Amino acid sequence: TTPSASAADPAAGAAVKAADRAHVFHSWSAQGLIDPLPIAGAEGSYFWDYDGNRYLDFSSQLVNTNIGHQHPKVVAAIQEQAAKLCTIAPGFAVDVRSEAARLVAERTPGDLDKIFFTNGGAEAVENAVRMARLHTGRAKVLSAYRSYHGATATAINLTGDPRRWPSDTASAGVIHFWGPFLYRSAFHAENEQQECERALAHLEQTIAFEGPQSIAAIILETVPGTAGIMVPPAGYLAGVREICDRHGIVFILDEVMAGFGRTGHWFAADHFGVTPDLLTFAKGVNSGYVPLGGVAISAEIAATFDQRPYPGGLTYSGHPLACASAVATMNAMAEERIVENAADIGERVIGPALREIAERHPSVGEVRGLGVFWALDLVKNKETREPLVPYNAAGAANAPMAEFAAACKRGGLWPFVNMNRTHVVPACTVTEAEAKEGLAALDEALTAADAHT
Ligand code: PMP
């Protein structure tokens, strides 16, 4: 099924694109300015277009296809479930739904043993916030700058970067604070320990001045993803856990992007030995083969809704096709040791290669990450750390990043680029040979970024 020259069919590709432009309204885009690439197929770590170009997928489709494209066990599970039962309302007990919930509960840390299913990440965040507000009887939610939590009403207001601005309704009770990020420290810290201490002190002070009795929840991405893969310093998340406990605040960890193997553990929280009260997930739970997300709920919060109804639901909550694909995904990941592969390739191949690349390229300011979850922070100047493009740059101002992305694609690599960063986020199934192929293409493409230093 890999493309060959004879498989190329540019006319079919042109027809697919024309049909798209006629009626499809795209996410996050000026509809008249986009040029979507028609896609003919995908397998494992690759996808391909109708012109015979094959791309090594270093984006995992918005950091989603942790198990790679078209995993045969997952495809078969969806087909079998479709033949058996395509849909049923959330109020019924169904074998695949309870099995998916059991497998998620078994993998999440601590006592997060009840699972509320949604159709994706933003809905998971919406419901986690509602649970926290009902559990505490409080309204405010604290979230970090340099974060993304989704594009629905509350989730976009929680988001701590310019993706929020056009939709910002100054949503009642959303308060932003600074998390730790030594490379661009909000606290002028000089080392990780200082950054950690100052970030925790800043959070304490924010809570003191907002009034702890008014705060329902603190939500954090365990390792912030699209905002730049900032691995928190040792002790930070444990410190937030302690602050939450002291003030009766619900601690929500958003693992929509970092969960299900991406960081080389089932959950990023496992790296830090921290258990939140609520954990949101999506993406890697079934690699998005069918839309699925959810909230893993602690025993204490679940008990709040034991004798009192939970006032929220979705027609497709725990959809049988989505749950069947999740069961097959989680089982295949265990059988094929895919989480272990992500840890091994990340530590042994990707991390060292990126650090070596950074030494040779004047445009690479910092390398950050773990597992198959890495970012290169591109700069004009390594000394001043001035970003390669201005914050939230668009159009001509963003040309250096656009040129870099185009160079990657010419080299057969599909990158994940956001602002002045490129993220290295292949499937958790990526092989050593594939990782090296992609890193070589990235190395070559970075000369386009170097030209702007
Ligand atoms: N939270 C995080 C950390 C995410 O990365 C994303 C998506 N990139 C979301 C929430 C929203 O998920 P969805 O797009 O499935 O609504």
From TrEMBL:
Alphabetic keyword roster: Aminotransferase, Pyridoxal phosphate, Transferase
Cofactors that this protein relies on: pyridoxal 5'-phosphate
One Gene Ontology MF term: transaminase activity
Any one Gene Ontology cellular component term annotated for this protein: cytosol
InterPro entries for this protein: Aminotrans_3 (IPR005814), Aminotrans_3_PPA_site (IPR049704), PyrdxlP-dep_Trfase (IPR015424), PyrdxlP-dep_Trfase_major (IPR015421), PyrdxlP-dep_Trfase_small (IPR015422)
Recorded family membership: Belongs to the class-III pyridoxal-phosphate-dependent aminotransferase family.
PANTHER family in the record: AMINOTRANSFERASE, AMINOTRANSFERASE CLASS-III
Protein name as catalogued: Aspartate aminotransferase family protein
